[in-house]
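TA notes, week 10

Several of you asked for a full example with nothing omitted. So below is the full record: structure tokens for the whole chain, then the designed sequence directly under it. When grading your own attempts, check the secondary structure regions first.
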């Protein structure tokens, strides 16, 4: 880590975000080639695949967080990190406006960061589709604070339901846990919550046993649309066995502090608006574009037809820009917004930046050799320089031929409760669909091996052992 101040001879590469995409880029980037600046409102990487296990305490939140400072300290050249939110990307002036969001404010809490190259990896925010009441009353499940909030709300609901003289109707409402969105986030969290109830809550608070109830609400005819039909059926049957109610063809239209209002479509096509009381509401209906990304899109006429995020070319360059790349959930590509895609895009961009730097170095060596060759009068020296020049030219062509980004799908995995999981795995160019307890062991080992660091791996493993031996904690956060 020799470089402290920005080196004027190097380009400044700014990376926004500390999620799957940006951290995968950072991990493989040769930082000595650029003045690297990372900007993110959170100073850690979060292993989202195990986030649904956090609110119930199956996994402790610190076990799936990796401090960004650990990651950047291990790089060859120093990397600057600012814990801040990018509020504006000014493409024309090539600066980013950043805001310090922390509770402790210094004299300066808003400033600008200039860039030569920019990678936008700010992810997405929670989609609410403008449904009234969602932001005010629901919990989300995207960040670590969301997991804390859900945990607190679930335990509050339980203890409030146990309050002296609580009516039966109110008790049932408070103990009704509603999860909206039958994608993998909603399914995995509903499963984890039901496990928590069956394994621990029922044992320590037996008075809730008859009334605690988890419902999963989904607008489409089935849950987990990205999985194969057999696995969808297997998941729905497992949920039935676990006594989780699955209400498909039920679209939430309005949310109040105690009810959701949903439009139910019956098999004969008739529709009915139903009021469903809830104690805790978890909203998991997918992704929406962040304001800073929407603002950048509005600066670029080439982005006017893009809806899901920044339209990029096959090298992840943002359409309508020069020197701005986007990856992960904030970009709009033909791939699903998953960690797998984001991390492969991050690794691709690291290769691209490393090869750009190598090309520039070779090109300046080439110019130097050409100048020497022009000056030299000795025939022998000139011939040797010519050979060197040809070699450099070949090396440049080799480095420059980086093929476009191509995603390699490893498969989809989801936990569905009762120590069962479903997996659609790509296997020797074919597909392997499996569900059950063996798949659960596979799910656990796959997620363990995917954890960011050995430290994370050991912590997660110890959390699982702890829960097996002592059960989950039932105290409120
Ligand atoms: P993120 O990982 O979300 O990172 C975005 C980063 O940008 C964060 O550091 C954030 O703090 C930062 N940021 C936000 N706003 C700004 C701003 N204005 N300025 C600067 N920085 C900003 N995918 C899978 O493939 N497998 C799974 O099992 C899986 N499980 C999931 C479980 C849950 C509960 C969730 C929510 C998602 C899951 N996903 C999974 C999806 C996966 O997490 C995302 O696709 C992935 O995180 C996208 O990576 P990203 O780098 O684009 O964004
Ligand atoms: P999603 O977009 O996959 O699913 C959201 C679901 O909410 C959809 O099925 C949609 O029909 C439903 N919905 C939307 N509005 C509704 C309404 N008003 N009422 C009822 N239902 C409504 O969202 P997600 O589960 O948060 O996943 C986001 C991304 O992260 C996806 O790409 C997913 O693949 C990925 N992810 C993967 C895993 C995994 O692989 N295990 C886990 C979590 C997330």
């Amino acid at each position: 880590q020799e470089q402290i101040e920005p080196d004027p001879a190097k380009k400044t590469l700014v990376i926004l975000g500390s999620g799957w995409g940006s951290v995968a880029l950072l991990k493989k980037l040769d930082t000595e080639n650029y003045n690297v600046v990372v900007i993110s409102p959170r100073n850690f990487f979060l292993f989202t695949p195990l986030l649904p296990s956090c609110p119930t305490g199956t996994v402790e939140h610190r076990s799936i967080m990796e401090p960004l400072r650990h990651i950047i300290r291990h790089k060859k050249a120093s990397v600057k990190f600012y814990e801040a939110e990018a509020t504006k990307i000014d493409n024309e002036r090539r600066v980013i406006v950043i805001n310090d969001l922390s509770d402790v404010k210094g004299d300066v809490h808003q400033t600008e960061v200039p860039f030569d190259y920019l990678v936008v990896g700010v992810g997405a925010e929670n989609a609410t589709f403008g449904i009234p009441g969602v932001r005010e009353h629901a919990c989300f499940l995207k960040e670590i604070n969301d997991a804390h909030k859900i945990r607190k709300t679930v335990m509050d609901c339980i203890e409030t339901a146990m309050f002296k003289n609580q009516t039966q109707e109110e008790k049932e409402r408070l103990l009704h846990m509603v999860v909206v969105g039958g994608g993998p986030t909603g399914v995995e969290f509903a499963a984890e919550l039901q496990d928590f109830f069956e394994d621990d809550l029922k044992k320590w608070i037996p008075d809730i046993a008859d009334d605690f109830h988890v419902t999963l609400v989904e607008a489409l005819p089935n849950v987990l649309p990205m999985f194969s039909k057999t696995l969808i059926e297997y998941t729905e049957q497992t949920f039935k066995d676990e006594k989780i109610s699955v209400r498909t063809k039920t679209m939430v239209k309005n949310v109040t502090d105690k009810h959701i209002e949903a439009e139910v479509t019956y098999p004969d096509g008739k529709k009915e608006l139903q009021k469903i009381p809830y104690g805790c509401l978890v909203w998991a209906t997918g992704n929406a574009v962040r304001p800073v990304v929407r603002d950048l899109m509005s600066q670029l006429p080439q982005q006017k037809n893009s809806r899901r995020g920044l339209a990029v070319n096959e090298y992840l360059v943002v359409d309508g820009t020069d020197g701005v790349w986007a990856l992960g959930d904030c970009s709009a590509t033909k791939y699903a917004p998953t960690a797998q895609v984001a991390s492969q895009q991050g690794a691709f961009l690291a290769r691209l930046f490393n090869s750009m730097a190598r090309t520039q170095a070779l090109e300046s060596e080439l110019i130097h050799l050409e100048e020497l060759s022009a000056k030299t009068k000795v025939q022998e020296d000139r011939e040797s320089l010519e050979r060197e020049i040809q070699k450099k030219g070949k090396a440049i062509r080799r480095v420059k031929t980086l093929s476009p980004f191509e995603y390699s799908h490893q498969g989809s995995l989801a936990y569905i409760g009762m120590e069962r999981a479903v997996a659609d795995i790509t296997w020797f160019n074919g597909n392997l669909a499996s569900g059950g307890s063996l798949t659960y062991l596979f799910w656990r080992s796959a997620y363990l091996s995917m954890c960011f660091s050995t430290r994370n791996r050991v912590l997660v493993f110890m959390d699982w052992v702890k829960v097996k031996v002592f059960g989950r904690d039932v105290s409120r956060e």
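Residues 36 and 403 are 24 Å apart (CA to CA). Use that as a sanity check on your answer.
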